[in-house]
Design a protein that fits this description.
Helix 2 packs parallel to helix 3 and helix 2 runs parallel beside helix 10. The protein has one domain: Aldolase class I (TIM Barrel), CATH 3.20.20. Strands 1-2-3-4-5-6-7-8 form an 8-stranded parallel beta barrel, surrounded by 6 helices. The radius of gyration is 15 Å and the shape is globular. Helix content is 41%, strand content 18%. The longest helix has 17 residues. By secondary structure, it is an alpha/beta fold.
Length: 208
């Protein structure tokens, strides 16, 4: 059941791209376009704003039957009853997340360009893994590079969904999907687009 929810457009918020005054309305455009997963990612350290915005996303994701993931904050995920959490290499462990959030929670792991890290994450109980950056990324310009071949190889060795991230937009997303990615994560490619809802609908249509 969890794996069935992890497919399609994976929208990731960015406090530098989305004005606080238009936060909910902007993310709702992506959901109207068909975003299946929303990850709340805010590196500002503003605890009050983070709780407020994550709570708004919880309501929106429920309304649109989308999955809500919190980036790198197990406590916040627990506080807003998010569907899960996404962890990087310097974040808490899968075991820590599972202890606090329970067996039904979704736990995603950033694996960059490291297939063995993904295999290990799967063995430790991860529900999905993310590879990237697939292309040059405005969010993380110095990110490690992943390839289509890595996605294809990972598909043969993993039985959990794979997310591709990094520099993906409406123009290059098709190749990522064809390579086997179950989810394509977009930040700038979605929230800096001229038409967020249309971009979301275009990408969602490619999965269909």
């Amino acid at each position: 059941m969890t794996h069935g929810r992890l497919r399609g457009l994976y929208a990731i918020t960015d406090e530098k791209l989305i004005p606080p005054s238009a936060f909910a309305a902007t993310v709702e455009l992506a959901l109207k376009g068909g975003a299946a997963i929303v990850q709340y990612r805010d590196k500002s350290g503003d605890a009050t704003r983070r709780l407020q915005q994550a709570s708004e996303l919880r309501e929106l994701c429920t309304q649109y039957s989308a999955t809500l993931i919190i980036n790198d904050d197990i406590a916040l995920a627990q506080a807003v009853s998010a569907d899960g959490v996404h962890l990087g290499e310097d974040d808490d462990t899968i075991a820590q997340a599972r202890d606090l959030l329970g067996d039904e929670s979704i736990i995603g792991i950033s694996c960059y360009n490291d297939l063995q890290r993904a295999i290990d994450a799967r063995s430790a109980g991860a529900d999905y893994v993310a590879f990237g950056a697939m292309f040059s990324s405005a969010t993380k310009p110095n990110a490690r590079s992943a390839s289509y071949e890595l996605i294809r190889t990972a598909k043969t060795q993993l039985d959990i969904p794979i997310c591709a991230i990094g520099g993906i937009d409406g123009h290059n997303v098709a190749g990522v999907i064809v390579s086997g990615a179950d989810m394509t994560a977009l930040i700038h490619g979605l929230f800096a687009a001229d038409d967020i809802m249309q971009t979301a609908a275009h990408i969602t249509g490619l999965f269909d």
